[in-house]
Write a structure and sequence with these properties.
By secondary structure, the protein is an alpha/beta fold. It has helices spanning 3-14, 34-47, 58-62, 78-86, 99-112, 124-131, 161-170, 184-196, 220-227, and strands spanning 48-49, 68-72, 91-96, 117-121, 137-143, 171-181, 200-202, 233-239. Helix 7 (161-170) links the parallel strand 5 (137-143) and strand 6 (171-181). The protein binds S-adenosylmethionine. Residues 24-25, 72-75, 95-98, 101, 123-125, 143-146, 158, 219 line the site of S-adenosylmethionine. Catalyzes the formation of N(7)-methylguanine at position 46 (m7G46) in tRNA.
Length: 241
């Protein structure tokens, strides 16, 4: 959100006007399983991060200066935990609004014994704006974001010009924004937004999509899609300046 629109929104809110913000998610009140609830209780003190604590100090949080990868909307966290397990010298931060997903992720993470992962249960747009320092991230990941199929819902898609501009400032120069989707129309939308965004360079030699890099684990859902002949599109853009 630009400073002007943010100020206008804040002013309207102070005046008691109700402004509906366009969000990329609908908060579902899914029930926690016993395992998820226990994982949250046991692991939140070591792995949970709170939006209201503001700007993060990565060195303090992780106890080292390893590169930091941030994932937006990790779902149940399966691929995020696997990535963290496979790359112990990289730090991972996951953001997800769906509480059962956060619980499931913490359950897997503690079973896998990973120590290089922290999570937020909050809107990623706000976490990025308020908690992540500029030019601090090695990589940003957005895997299979909600596609919002219907045309009238396309404004809810998280990949929008303003969002990617804000996100660029959080990457280090040379840092990469990696997206993946199984919805062709969303892949085209991502490519259009990212190609128009100056100061990003497409890493694809053909200036469109990339083969899935080995470090992005193949999800069960994706394997099934492959068998059914469905496509998956990976897009990787680097921060130029
Ligand atoms: C279709 S799911 C994909 C989950 C996972 N990345 C995967 O590949 O299985 C999209 C997820 O993004 C989350 N999400 C959407 N908008 C978000 C936001 N602004 N902040 C945090 N999470 C968000 C949703 O709650 C949902 O779990």
């Amino acid at each position: 959100m630009s400073e002007t629109s943010k100020t206008a929104l804040e002013q309207a809110e102070q005046e008691g006007k109700y402004i509906r913000k366009v969000r990329s998610f609908v908060k579902r009140e899914g029930r926690l399983t016993k395992g998820q609830a226990k994982a949250l209780e046991d692991n939140w003190p070591t792995m949970g991060l709170n939006h209201q604590d503001g700007l993060l100090d990565f060195t303090k949080v992780f106890g080292n200066d390893n590169p930091v990868v941030l994932e937006i909307g990790f779902g149940m966290g399966k691929s995020l935990v696997e990535m963290a397990k496979n790359a112990p010298n990289t730090n991972f931060i996951g953001i997800e609004v769906h509480r059962p997903g956060v619980g499931a992720c913490l359950m897997d993470a503690s079973e896998a014994g990973v120590t290089n992962l922290r999570v937020y249960e909050h809107d990623a747009v706000e976490v990025l704006a308020d908690c992540i320092a500029d030019s601090s991230l090695a990589k940003l990941q957005l895997f299979f974001p909600d596609p919002w199929h219907k045309k009238r819902h396309h404004k809810r898609r998280i990949v929008q010009p303003e969002f990617v501009e804000n996100l660029r400032s959080k990457l280090k120069i040379g840092g990469v924004f990696h997206m993946a989707t199984d919805w062709e129309n969303y892949a085209e939308h991502m490519l259009e937004v990212m190609t128009a965004a100056e100061k990003f360079k497409n890493q694809s030699e053909t200036n469109d999509y990339m083969p899935r890099p080995d470090d992005r684990p193949l999800t069960k859902f994706e394997q099934r899609g492959h068998r059914l002949g469905h496509g998956v599109w990976d897009l990787m853009f680097e921060r130029k300046v």
